[in-house]
């Protein structure tokens, strides 16, 4: 099994965080510093910072947070305002995906590494919905161009649903997650984002969750989410 899959399934780090640990030389396999793409055999000894990963993972945790502006979606303790320190949950968790520091709204956190890759890959078509305020009136030409796809980062974004909700605000539903995608799309069309809030991930919504507050996913919404990820 590849090392990042092995560690993510323990629930201690996501694959992305595991890759960062590998790059920093903090993981060893049988006493040797782990390299990217390394494989783990059943009897191998895997250590992180010289310590073994506990054999028994904790109970699965699934949280929804209404992230405030200024919180950074990283588990790196040295980063001021990192999301893990902000929540201060009693067991190890990590964020599923990202919401940039200047944005707010819904983000999910878990210790279940098995679902992260399924949720993040764009080919799975999982929806994420945002409400966006911009610096100029939202025109039909703008919404049509956004929905068709915009060239950013040397690719054309996937078609998406865009609806104007007021003179300076629109709603957008994405099925991919390029870096700063909405901000870059708007900039390419001559607009600047003033406020960006994520209000839904698949079937999970903010549901009156106050800014800065988090909650455990309810049984029904969690069961539906996991069913969709199968």
From TrEMBL:
Domain (RNA-binding S4): residue spans on this chain: 1-58
SMART domains to which the protein is assigned, alphabetical: S4
Keyword RNA-binding set for record: yes
Keyword Nucleus set for record: no
Transmembrane annotation, as ranges: none
E.C. no: 5.4.99.-
PROSITE patterns for this protein: PSI_RSU, S4
Keywords from the UniProt entry: Isomerase, RNA-binding
Enzyme's top EC category: isomerase
UniProt family annotation: Belongs to the pseudouridine synthase RsuA family.
Protein name: Pseudouridine synthase
């Amino acid at each position: 099994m590849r090392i990042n899959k092995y560690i993510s399934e323990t629930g201690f780090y996501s694959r992305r965080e595991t890759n960062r640990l590998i790059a920093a030389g903090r993981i060893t396999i049988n006493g040797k510093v782990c390299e990217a793409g390394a494989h783990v055999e059943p009897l191998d000894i895997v250590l992180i910072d010289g310590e073994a990963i506990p054999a028994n993972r904790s109970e699965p945790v699934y949280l929804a947070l209404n992230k405030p502006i200024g919180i950074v979606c990283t588990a790196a303790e040295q980063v001021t305002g990192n999301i893990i320190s902000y929540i201060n949950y009693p067991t190890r968790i990590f964020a599923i995906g990202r919401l940039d520091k200047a944005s707010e709204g819904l983000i999910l956190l878990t210790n279940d590494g098995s679902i992260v890759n399924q949720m993040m890959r764009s080919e799975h078509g999982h929806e994420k919905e945002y409400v966006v305020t911009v610096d100029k009136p939202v025109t039909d030409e703008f919404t049509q161009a956004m929905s068709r796809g915009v060239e950013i980062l040397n690719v054309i974004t996937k078609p998406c649903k865009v609806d104007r909700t007021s003179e300076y605000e629109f709603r957008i539903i994405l099925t991919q997650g390029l870096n700063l995608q909405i901000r870059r799309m708007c900039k390419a069309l001559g607009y600047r984002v003033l406020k960006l809030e994520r209000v839904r991930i698949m079937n999970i919504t903010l549901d009156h969750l106050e800014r800065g507050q988090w909650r455990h996913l309810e049984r029904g919404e969690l069961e539906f989410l996991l069913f969709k990820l199968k």
